[in-house]
Amino acid sequence: MITKTRRLLSVTTAMVVASTSFAFAEPSAELIAAAKKEGQLTTIALPHSWCGYGEVIAGFKKKYPEIQVNELNPDASSGDEIEAIKANKDNKGPQAPDVIDVGLSFGPSAKKESLIQPYKVATWDSIPDDAKDADGYWYGDYYGVLSFIVNTDIVKNVPKDWKDLTGSDYANSVALAGDPRSSNQAVQGVYAAGIAAGETDATKAGEAGLKLFADINKAGNFVPVIGKSASLAQGSTPIVIAWDYNGLSWRDTLKGNPPLEVVVPASGVVAGVYVQAISAYAPHPNAAKLWMEHIYSDEGQLAYLKGYCHPIRFNDLAKNNKIPKELLDALPPAAAYEKAIFPTLDDQDKGKTAITTQWDKVVGANIQ
């Protein structure tokens, strides 16, 4: 079972004619030579079934067959990854990770503890500023946005925005994919509803989100259970608020029985980001840098997209017509992501505090 908690644009339809080749900045010959001399890269917590990592790793091996990829504990959590760095500071053996893929909050904390080292990839400028450390210690690699996952066998009038969920069409239909008193995915769902209400202050956005969910509950539309693919399929929670990549995976798993639609709301599009970093104690620092160049290349970023995770360079790829049409056809419309925002850690903390401490008082739904 995967224990790692993985809970994250302005384009038009005319812009999605894909280039037939990858046109990205190549790593230097010196870096490639140094990495090949090291001969190994040690990763951790990269299950092949998540975000297209199987293809990402295969692509690296194909380009650099001289470098052996040593994959540690694919089911590790972000915390486990950080502990692996700490435990192997003086170890240059196979248990010491070179690179990590962790939740957003772990990037700044790892930097503060001097556990990671800076490196800026060739495509650095195309990574959004609000998804990277200015000094290059960590940067986002992929993200998802909060969406409505809808069983269209039951829900005929699909909701388009957060306020729609208060409507009479959705009696006993709406669930969160977690308890907002403890689940980050659920907290961010409530927070996104507050952003949709027009609030820019994080605390006020949390409070506005609570008010909307109180209205959904008063309307008789909120179902106080944790929404999952099974409850979607059974019809007990025909609308689940979850990360888009979760919904898209559920859609594939259910294979049209029942049919699901993944709707990115018209407003309040909140993104959740994962970040990459190189261990300060990496036994193979040049291989680590070459790995970073690979995953932030066009090829690596599109492999994430095949796994339904939006690559952090999505805007740049779309603007330059590098996204194959078949990839976009498997996702909600590309233009739906144009308003995606990336809350800062401070915003996340403020919103979380407001939501977790006031849910019982304002909404009053005890989620089971």
TrEMBL record:
Q: What are the BP-aspect GO terms?
A: thiamine transport
Can you tell which superkingdom this protein's organism belongs to?
Bacteria
GO molecular function terms listed in the Swiss-Prot or TrEMBL record: thiamine binding; thiamine pyrophosphate binding
What keywords are assigned to this protein? Signal
Q: Does the keyword Signal apply?
A: yes
Signal peptide location in the record? Answer: 1-25
> GO CC: one term?
outer membrane-bounded periplasmic space
Q: Which PANTHER family match?
A: ABC TRANSPORTER SUBSTRATE-BINDING PROTEIN, THIAMINE-BINDING PERIPLASMIC PROTEIN-RELATED
According to UniProt, the name of this protein is: Extracellular solute-binding protein
Q: Which organism is it from?
A: Endobacterium cereale
